[in-house]
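This section describes the prediction task in plain terms. A model, or a person checking by hand, is given the sequence of a single protein chain and must write out its three-dimensional structure as a string of tokens. No templates, partner chains or ligands are provided. The sample shown here is typical of the held-out split.
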Amino acid sequence: MENFYKTAKWKAKREKILRRDGYRCQECRKYGKNTPATYVHHILHLEDRPDLALVDSNLESVCLPCHNKLHPEKGTKSSLSRYR
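The expected answer:
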């Protein structure tokens, strides 16, 4: 799945979702915060639901701290760079 994040389709979809969400973290927004987002998160994880990999309703813009909370198994910032 790692190569998925390098595809032109993912890069275009990622940009579309960030634009849709106003480059703001949708998790922080739930708590009244206005935080810049730099990651796009698969709500239903890519490994579990590859059929939803590019479905808008399964994607949300998030900041790094929220992405870390949503994916504690992924570890550090350096390991997350491929998901940007």
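For orientation: The chain is about 35% helix and 10% strand.
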